[in-house]
């Protein structure tokens, strides 16, 4: 490394201490990187970013108090040039699209970290984007498909919790026929055979969470 080149300063945001330690160890093993700081939840991530203003931030999607998507939105609202990678267990395309729309420039799966992690950090620091091949492929496969509406997501989330059509109708102040209509649209958009299949697909693709 050129003596005049400063190391890439990285902020790691994840609610699991062991995950943070593992990422910190990878960063410490790289001559052109250093750990700027850590955060254990979304609000702390925003506060730490504001205080440290790192070159790159790695932010987990699922965090307490404020989730990763909300934290990214808050950071980008204040720091338009922030370079952020989403760190997640999930590979659902809906989550990836939501993260990208929120301002993330990279999407990393925790299951394939070490090599991709360092590549992503360098890419972001250089002003580039980074998406693993499997994530890019899923995004491409689903780009032409219709998105679920907010109301359809609400209906599906309640069904995933075991609610009947009647219960969903009561919770959302809709008629049962309207709920059935939403279900038909949902199954058409997801290519599902039945409501259970629709829930399974929606969870896999990240439209809803459990």
UniProtKB/TrEMBL annotation:
Where's the HTH luxR-type domain?
141-206
- List UniProt keywords, sorted A-Z: DNA-binding, Phosphoprotein
Keyword DNA-binding on this protein? Answer: yes
Residues modified as 4-aspartylphosphate are 60
Q: Does the keyword DNA-binding apply?
A: yes
| Classification via Pfam families | GerE, Response_reg
Alphabetized InterPro entries for the sequence: CheY-like_superfamily, NreC/VraR/RcsB-like_REC, Sig_transdc_resp-reg_C-effctor, Sig_transdc_resp-reg_receiver, Tscrpt_reg_LuxR_C, WalR-like
- GO MF terms on file? DNA binding
Q: Could you state one GO biological process linked to this protein?
A: phosphorelay signal transduction system
What are the residue boundaries of the Response regulatory domain, all occurrences included? Answer: 9-125
PANTHER family with a match to the protein in the record = TWO-COMPONENT RESPONSE REGULATOR
Protein name per the record: Response regulator transcription factor
């Amino acid at each position: 490394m050129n003596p005049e080149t400063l190391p890439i300063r990285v902020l790691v945001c994840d609610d699991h201490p062991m995950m943070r330690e593992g990422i910190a160890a990878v960063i410490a093993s790289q001559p052109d990187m250093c750990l700027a700081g850590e955060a254990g939840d979304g609000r702390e991530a925003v506060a730490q970013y504001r205080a440290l203003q790192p070159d790159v931030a790695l932010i987990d999607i699922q965090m307490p108090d404020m989730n990763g998507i909300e934290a990214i939105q808050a950071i980008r609202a204040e720091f338009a040039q922030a370079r952020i990678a989403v760190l997640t267990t999930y590979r659902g395309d809906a989550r990836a699209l939501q993260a990208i729309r929120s301002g993330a420039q990279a999407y990393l799966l925790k299951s394939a970290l070490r090599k991709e992690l360092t590549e992503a950090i360098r890419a972001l620091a250089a002003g580039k984007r980074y998406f693993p091949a499997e994530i890019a492929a899923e995004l491409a496969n689903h780009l032409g498909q219709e998105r679920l509406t907010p109301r359809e997501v609400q209906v599906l989330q309640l069904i995933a919790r075991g609610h009947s059509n009647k219960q969903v109708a009561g919770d959302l102040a809709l008629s049962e026929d309207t709920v059935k209509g939403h279900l038909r649209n949902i199954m058409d958009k997801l290519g599902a055979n039945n409501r259970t299949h629709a829930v399974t697909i929606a969870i896999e693709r990240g439209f809803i969470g459990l």
